């Protein structure tokens, strides 16, 4: 078996204070292969950023171990960190330098000199070339986000972690970023993505892990998650009150709007009959295959994990 891009085994992280003890990660184990485009999903507080921080050497695990391309993130920290490029959620930048200077300094952190050719290529790919000499503090939030991505890539890391890279950015940046990241993945780079935009994860990731309250509750190929768990999605706009018998099927609800998850096609007519019997007036409906968001909501509502064998 080849060396994993990232492997975590029985990873535990606890935070303690006088007031309380919090378990951010509770025995998480997973293996991400080289060359994968891998999704790490979960609600806020699920443990995603804690897991990334441990893998990047920014936090120390309370138990278990983590490796990057076979290098232990504690005992071989320097070697592990050299394999890794991390794009953080927060917009962290030095206001005293231009974009090009920032990327040159970042190259120096990894012991790389005369890196301008690659810096130029990265800036061009992220549409930053015309901002190369602009001071960082003058950039918009979206441009600063592009610089964070460029900083993570200046040392050509084989493993790239993107932690909510498109949070709060415009459509143009998303398209530019994903085109470049797809190219890197085709060239052999391993990509690990966390995002709340589940349509991005569905379109990009070949395999997905889901965390809930610090525990791994799902790990499988994206297509398998959709096939095994999703069923049908029935979206309704209506006047009236939904029958209580349908409550278990509701995965999204608002005033006059609901989305139901149905297991089979023949449940559609039974659902519509129940609505008619209740006196609900339908204004619109749409039936389709459930997407990753529906799967996500279903798994978060369940108690038992759905880990693939």
Characterization of the model:
The chain contains ten helices and 15 strands. The chain has two domains: 221 residues, P-loop containing nucleotide triphosphate hydrolases (Rossmann fold), CATH 3.40.50.300; 60 residues. The protein is α/β, with parallel strands linked by helices and 309 residues long. 33% of the residues lie in helices and 30% in strands. The mean pLDDT is 88. The longest helix has 16 residues. Strands 6-7-8-3-9-10-15 form a seven-stranded mixed sheet, with helices on both faces.
In terms of DSSP E residues, the strand content is 25-35%
Number of helices: 10
Instruction: Quickly give the CATH architecture of the largest domain.
Output: 3-Layer(aba) Sandwich
What is the CATH T-level topology of the largest domain?
A: Rossmann fold
Largest sheet entry? 7 strands, mixed
Number of domains: 2
Helix proportion of residues, in percent? 25-40%
Poorly predicted runs are none
Secondary-structure element pattern, one letter each: EEEHEEHEHHHEHEHEEHEEEHEHE
Spatial arrangement of strands, main beta sheet: 6-7-8-3-9-10-15
Give the helix/strand class. alpha/beta
């Amino acid at each position: 078996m080849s060396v994993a891009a990232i492997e975590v085994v029985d990873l535990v992280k606890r935070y303690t204070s006088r007031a309380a003890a919090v378990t951010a990660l509770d025995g998480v184990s997973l293996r991400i292969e080289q060359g994968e485009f891998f999704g790490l999903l979960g609600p806020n507080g699920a443990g995603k950023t804690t897991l990334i921080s441990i893998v990047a050497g920014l936090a120390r695990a309370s138990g278990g171990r983590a490796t990057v391309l076979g290098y232990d993130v504690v005992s071989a920290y320097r070697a592990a960190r050299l394999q890794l490029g991390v794009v953080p959620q927060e917009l962290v930048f030095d206001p005293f330098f231009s974009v090009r200077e920032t990327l040159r300094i970042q190259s120096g952190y990894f012991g790389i000199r005369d890196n301008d050719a690659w810096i130029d290529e990265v800036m061009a790919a992220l549409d930053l070339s015309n901002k190369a000499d602009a001071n960082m503090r003058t950039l918009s939030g979206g441009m600063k986000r592009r610089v964070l991505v460029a900083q993570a890539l200046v040392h050509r890391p084989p493993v790239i972690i993107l932690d909510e890279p498109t949070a709060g950015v415009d459509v143009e940046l998303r398209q530019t970023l994903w085109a470049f990241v797809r190219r890197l993945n085709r060239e052999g780079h391993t990509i690990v993505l966390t995002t709340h935009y589940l349509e991005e994860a569905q379109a990009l990731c070949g395999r997905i892990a889901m965390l809930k309250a610090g525990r791994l509750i799902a790990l499988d190929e994206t297509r398998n998650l959709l096939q095994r768990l999703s069923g049908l999605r029935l979206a309704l706009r209506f006047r009236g009150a939904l029958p209580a018998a349908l409550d278990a099927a509701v995965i999204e609800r608002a005033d006059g709007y609901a989305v139901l998850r149905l297991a089979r096609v023949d449940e559609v007519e039974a659902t519509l009959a129940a609505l008619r019997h209740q006196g609900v007036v339908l204004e619109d409906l749409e039936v389709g295959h459930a997407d990753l968001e529906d799967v996500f909501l279903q798994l978060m509502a369940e108690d038992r994990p759905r880990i693939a064998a």
